[in-house]
Amino acid sequence: MNILLSLSIIVVTFIIMEFVAWFTHKYIMHGFLWVLHKDHHQKEPGFFEKNDAFFVIFAVPSITLFAFGAEYSSYLLISIGLGILLYGIAYFFVHEVFIHKRLKWFKKSNSRYLTILRKAHYSHHKHLDKEDGESFGMLFVNFKKYK
Q: Domain residues of the chain, as ranges?
């Protein structure tokens, strides 16, 4: 498989993962796995949360694709696994480090866009219960609100 095709698969997988993450958050985390996600919506959840189990849950497909890709010399499987891995890394930095400040790496930002993004996400956390915790339109309303 050539490099351009492999890179294309990685990028497409990364983009698809944004939908997968949204779907999982709305219908699974705020659904039957609320028991794991609930502490993420608490006022003072602590450094480690039950919600962190989702890092492992999302890592399993990536690791599995790497293993099968290596076993069967499949660059397709490895590329998809890498796209999932890169999305997970980006998610960690944006959501856990920047938005929730679980690690104190990016405490100050002069970026108006990033400040709006953080505030829009916090409006999601105003909902401390299972219902009404995910609204795609909520982000757009909040972007207008904080301009």
A: 3-106
